[in-house]
Amino acid sequence: MSGPVTLTAALTGPIATKADHPALPVTPDEIAVAAAESTAAGAAIVHVHLRDDEGRPTADLDVAHRVIDAIGERCDALVQMSTGVGLGVPLSERAQLVEVRPAMATLNVCSMTFGAGEFLNPADEVRRLAARMAELGVKPELEIYDTGHLDVALELLADGLLVEPLQFSIVLGVRGGMAATPENLLSLVRRMPPTAVWQVVAIGRSNLPITAMGLALGANARTGLEDTLLIRRGEPARSSAQLVARLAAIAGALERPLNSPAQAALALGLATASSPTP
Ligand code: KMH
Ligand code: ZN
Questions:
Q1: Under a CB-based contact definition with an 8 Å cutoff, are residues 172 and 207 in contact?
Q2: Where does the chain show beta strands of DSSP type E?
Q3: Is the pTM of this model over 0.90?
Q4: Which of 38, 60, 172, 217 could bridge to 43 as Cys pair (CB 3.0-4.6 Å)?
């Protein structure tokens, strides 16, 4: 498989703290620096989680504006805002983040056990969020942690709450979701709608092999400190940019050119490359 590829850098995530990795970016400025480094390394999209002054996950709109503005000052990365935020934050709060009109935002379509916690995404609130994203022109990145989540996403499409082409992250390796195995990846890939755009989000030690498998299958790819804190067994990654650079090298070896943010916006059919914050 060939063709251009869009790389996403997942910079912070919902769970790890600076105690787990001192280079984890948590302030708006740290997140913006990590975004600029990752863009220089080949990422077109940055997947963004917000943290408050104590480093805890937050859906605070003021923080969201500060992070988006700080990223915009340093690079032209497309911002994919996480509405997953963190396990303790209710979806009623998380959903507000789409009001800052990022180019994209995640849509977690089902509740599940997630690592040591519970990730609550009540069906009626998911439907309301999908409808609001459609109204605002914020492209949903559909997070699929298990086979039934794909069925729920396809139901949202059938009900007119999503617009094709659908954009999927197949998340493998979260405790409570599907394990990061080639078999699990292929079983979901075979069920992707023909027009779908997809990438693998492989958590932990399978980050490299399973993401490389997605690249070889012609998919987009994501990596970063949200997905793995290690560059290899026993060795912390210096930064998300280092992980992105490794994916860019694999894409290069597969003769797949990297999309710039503007090319990625076109390829993903986004309304605008990046929207100014109101
Ligand atoms: N942390 C990943 C396992 C989201 O932010 O909405 C999934 C994720 C979802 O990135
Ligand atoms: Zn995330």
A1: no
A2: 7-10, 45-48, 78-81, 104-108, 112-114, 117-119, 139-144, 167-172, 197-202, 220-223, 230-232, 235-236
A3: yes
A4: 38
Two tokens, residue 17: 């703290």
13 CA distance to ligand 1 middle (Å): 7
In the CATH scheme, what is the homologous superfamily, with its name and number, of domain 7-267? Aldolase class I (3.20.20.70)
SS3 224: coil
State the distance from the centre of ligand 2 to the C-alpha of 106, rounded, in angstroms. 8
Which atom of ligand 1 is least distant from the CA of 141? 6
Query: For 156-192, what is each residue's pLDDT tens digit?
Result: 999 999 999 999 999 999 999 999 999 999 999 999 9
Nearest atom in ligand 1 to the alpha carbon of residue 177 is 3
Q: Is the dihedral of CA 151, 223, 45, 68 positive or negative?
A: positive
